[in-house]
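Thread: "does anyone have the structure for this chain?"

Original post by V.I.:
We have the sequence but no experimental structure in hand. Need at least a predicted one for the grant figures.
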Amino acid sequence: MKTQQTITKTDWRSEWFEFDDVAYMNTAGQAAIPKVAVRAAQAAIEWKKYPHKMPDSLQFELTGRVRELLAEMIGAQPAEIALTTGASTGMAAVAQGIDWKPTDEVLIARGEFPAHFATWLPMQEAGRLRVRVVSPRGRFLTTDDLIDAITPNTRLISTSLVRFDDGARCDATRLSAAIHKVGGMLLLDGAQCVGGMPMNIVELGADFLVASGYKWLLGPYGTGFFWASGKSMAALKPMPAYWAAIEGASDFSKLSGGEMKLKKEACRWDMPETANFFNLAPLQASLEFLARVGVQTVWDHNQELMAQIIERLPLDKCVLASPADPNLRGPYVCVASRHAAETPKAYEKLRAAGVIVSLREGALRIAPHLYNTELDVDRLIAALTT
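Reply from O.Q.:
Generated one for you, tokens below.
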């Protein structure tokens, strides 16, 4: 005889401040930071209000703790993490750090987030490399589209692990194996999945990973990180660095001594004034919150809500604008009106009903988080149906 088990779900909404009677489902645009992060930001302001209360060790302990938390989240080492103001910073470090040849190719997919084009097209205009834009052969870009575009001249693939426009997810393990066969490298943009999807960057096989901190990492705007494998880090040329990357810089009493040698770690690519207390203190709090909750918990929660959305989608009015296979999607889902001209109207209707999503590339991007429940799905579906 089977014993019936009662499963009690955790209500995570208390970890956030109450929303103003809206169903906020736009984490892929701007995350709502949890209460612990708000309090950390307030404490950081107090440090500047009363600087004598600021711990002397804060300058380096804060950055060190954030590196540790990020490394733990992606299965890396803290020394491989540079703290940046967003994903673009890491892309620029790779673009400026590699010794390019004019015949080298960088592959970017059509419809990719503009940061990729803003990084690589100027390099092409300067004659330092060639950019090839890969078009998807079907509705969504696939890993095979990128793999089949690789040539002996392909030096780098710059691609999102999860696409911003439709949530499509690439198979980074296969992609990295394919590009490594021709001696190339893989740069992954994890802005739309790091913190919202479990991952081990070593298992994925990528050479570089960049991410912004204000989405799935639940941090403030102006935060992010750049990860490079040890081998790939060594392949990047030296470039001007923030002074804190000098060996022994943490000892304020002896800053003018020593050989003034740069550390070998990824902190060489930290953005200046790295220990930005107003940004990193709340980011640390959010990362500790995610470590306590577990990224797997976020992923499972969103998978359940997305399954409900897809199952209940009014098909007479809407179509799925993300891959149907959950293994090919990231932590959110996109839908569109059956008639393209109606999608912007549907977006405005949702906002009027207090359902906050993104309008991206002709689709409604629905990105829930732990603060969303089945009641928010009810509200979404009701607004789409009427």
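V.I.: this helps a lot. The chain has a mean pLDDT of 94.
O.Q.: and The chain has two domains: 12-25+294-385, 44-292.
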